[in-house]
Design goal:
The protein is mainly alpha-helical and about 250 residues long. Helix content is about 55%, strand content about 10%. It contains six helices and six strands, in the order H-H-E-E-E-E-H-E-H-E-H-H. The strands form three sheets. It has a two-stranded antiparallel sheet with strand order 1-2. A two-stranded antiparallel sheet has the order 3-4. Strand 3 and strand 4 (about 85-90) form a beta hairpin. The radius of gyration is 28 Å and the shape is extended. InterPro entries: Tnp_DDE_dom.
């Protein structure tokens, strides 16, 4: 590869001009060679901004630590949920620490609604000291145990803690639903822009399905459940009148 790169550079010095597509591919080839040569010379298996796909050079290896797939390739998305609707807080092909997105997400929630949320349900990675201090300052209940050893006289509301854990699982269900029914688990686009657009459209589709579901449930209650409730209420009142006469 080093020899072929030298040949192309020599031809360019003699006046050869590459097309735009050829120039982009040649740049990617040079970057891949530099990264592979760096890892070989330094006897390492990692390099900053490592290119793992020739046709999709924007992809990066993201270590997830899962048993089945310890390393994944694709976009990483950080999503929040409020009132049943999902919102993309950050979307990037680079690996990032999502814990730093909590404070900006809460501030954006305040800009939309005019007040801070009553509680924030998060995973362990979000429960940093900075995030805990921010939530404490604005009287926001952060789900999960407190830092340090529990005090002897500390009382924990098991019911509230259990309810927070059940509500937090809802975001995991939304991820699963988006992958199974809204195309998030089958992104087949090749360009970076179209890939990010497909992910965003999956989230939009999931929110639209919630609107449709709520609308149909409201119609079902008005058309079917309301007459049934009215019928039982009338029957109960008739029974009370009959019992009074007897």
């Amino acid at each position: 590869m080093k020899r072929d790169i030298r040949y192309i550079e020599h031809l360019q010095e003699q006046g050869a001009v590459l097309t735009e597509e050829q120039a982009i591919r040649f740049y990617i080839i040079q970057r891949i060679f530099e990264q592979q040569d760096y890892m070989y010379q330094n006897k390492t298996h990692s390099v900053p901004n490592r290119i793992v796909s020739f046709s999709q050079p924007y992809l990066r290896p993201i270590v997830r630590g899962k048993a089945k797939t310890p390393t994944e390739f694709g976009a990483k998305v950080d999503i929040s949920q409020a009132a049943g609707f999902l919102r993309i807080e950050r979307l990037s092909f680079e690996a990032f620490n999502e814990s730093v997105d909590l404070i900006p997400a809460v501030e954006r929630y305040k800009e939309r609604t005019g007040h801070y949320p009553e509680r924030v349900l998060v995973d362990q990675i979000y429960r940093t000291r900075e995030n805990r201090a921010f939530c404490k300052k604005h009287t926001i209940r952060l789900s999960g145990p407190k830092l340090g050893r529990p005090k002897k006289d500390q009382t924990v509301d098991k019911q509230v803690e259990s309810q927070d854990n059940r509500d937090r699982i809802q975001i995991e269900r939304e991820f699963s639903l988006a992958k199974r029914c809204h195309g998030l688990g089958l992104i087949r686009t090749r360009l970076a822009t179209t890939t990010l657009t497909s992910i965003a459209l999956s989230i939009v589709s999931l929110n639209l399905s919630k609107i449709q579901r709520d609308f149909l449930c409201a119609i079902f209650r008005e058309v079917f459940l309301a007459p049934i409730e009215l019928f039982y209420q009338s029957e109960a009142s008739s029974f009370e009148k009959l019992s009074f006469v007897q």
